[in-house]
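Student: I would love a firmer grasp of how sequence relates to backbone shape in proteins. I am handing you a single protein, as its sequence and its fold in token form. I am told such tokens are a discrete way to write the fold. I hope you can help me see how the letters and the tokens relate. Take your time, and here it is.
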Amino acid sequence: MMGNMGNMGKMMKQVQKMQADMAKLQEELGNRTVEASSGGGMVKAVVNGKQEILSIQINPEAVDPEDVEMLQDMILAAVNEALRQSQEMVSAEMGKITGGVNIPGLF
């Protein structure tokens, strides 16, 4: 019976370390960014590891009052790609901490 208690204590320490590592990672990810563009670089979006859009840059040549829909599509494409890249970055970093084990509710 005592062996099980020792294993439980060891497991709890591992969980606590994982939680501390994840808290540190969350803070670091807020400072890491990814950039994506669309329309041949006409629209660029920068997103951080917290999936926050930090900036959107639009080349003035992309602004055509006759075709606002094209500009909207380029913005959506750049933002969605930047968000996707950010999520991949977070998943990769989380995998390093969790050893690839998916733990629901961590993020």
